[in-house]
Write a structure and sequence with these properties.
- The complex is a heterodimer.
- Helices cover 0% and strands 56% of the residues of chain A.
- In chain A, strand 7 (64-70) and strand 8 (73-79) form a beta hairpin.
- In chain A, the strands form 2 sheets. In chain A, strands 2, 4, 5, 6, 9, 10 and 11 form a 7-stranded mixed beta sheet that branches. Chain A has a 4-stranded antiparallel beta sheet with strand order 1-3-8-7, with no helix packed on it.
- Chain A is built from no helices and 11 strands.
- Chain A is an all-beta fold.
- By secondary structure, chain B is an all-beta fold.
- Helices cover 0% and strands 54% of the residues of chain B.
- In chain B, the strands form 2 sheets. A 5-stranded antiparallel beta sheet of chain B has the order 1-3-8-7-6, with no helix packed on it.
- The chains are: A mainly beta, B mainly beta.
- Chain A binds chain B through residues 4, 31, 33, 40-43, 45, 48, 50, 55-56, 88, 90, 92, 94, 97, 102-109, 111, and chain B through 1, 30-31, 33, 35, 40-45, 48, 88, 90, 92, 94-103, 105.
Chain lengths: 115, 110
């Protein structure tokens, strides 16, 4: 299984809602990532988990809350978002660097619209 | 953060022609990767070149790396309509942080 699965594919939420994005991989990868991508822009790194611990937070607002319940799962909890947070949210995973693991495997993304 | 900058921003060619896009970066790297993204989808890894390599091939792809100029190029030969996508470089320092360049939008006209 070489897939990263993201759910849901599309999400519409109001500014007062709480929702979660989910990401799953069964490749035994020990690093998992969240990226945010606005239209016609490159993906922007948000968070990195390494061995289930948060290792990088790119100064992301606290209305985005990541969680890594185990080595296969990554969640992104959303609360009180703003319309400008509307974007494609991409999850990725990679084997641990040092084992030839620099290659990223991406999911298809969740297209989020905040109304 | 290590981020690349691609040029051109957009490229339009006829099917069968070659497409070349370039990536420049600012600091020392351990490797540099290229990814493709079809509209609204996730990125797909194309090729990785390490800092001690000068050229690498994979099918119709050829990547070069010039660490003295801090630049890399991606050549797609005999392009096809299915190659229409955005292409991003990602200079890497060997760690867990991957930052993508500004991207080149390639359109291959059938």
């Amino acid at each position: 299984d070489t897939e990263v699965t993201q759910t849901p594919k599309h999400l519409v939420m109001g500014m007062t809602n709480k929702k979660s994005l989910k990401c799953e991989q069964h490749m035994g990868h020990r690093a998992m990532y969240w990226y945010k991508q606005k239209a016609k822009k490159p993906p922007e790194l948000m968070f990195v988990y390494s061995y289930e611990k948060l290792s990088i937070n790119e100064s992301v607002p606290s209305r985005f809350s990541p969680e890594c319940p185990n080595s296969s799962l990554l969640n992104l909890h959303l609360h009180a978002l703003q319309p400008e947070d509307s974007a494609l949210y991409l999850c990725a995973s990679s084997p641990d660097p040092g084992q030839g693991g620099e290659k990223l495997f991406f999911g298809s993304g969740t297209q989020l619209s905040v109304l | 953060s290590q981020q690349g900058e691609e040029d051109p921003q957009a490229l339009s060619i006829q099917e069968g022609e070659n497409a070349t896009m370039n990536c420049s970066y600012k600091t020392s790297i351990n490797n540099l990767q290229w990814y493709r993204q079809n509209s609204g989808r996730g990125l797909v890894h194309l090729i990785l070149i390490r800092s001690n390599e000068r050229e690498k091939h994979s099918g119709r792809l050829r990547v070069t790396l010039d660490t003295s100029k801090k630049s890399s190029s991606l050549l797609i030969t005999a392009s096809r309509a299915a190659d229409t996508a955005s292409y991003f470089c990602a200079p890497g320092d060997g760690g867990n942080q991957f930052y993508f360049g500004t991207g080149t939008s390639l359109t291959v006209i059938p």
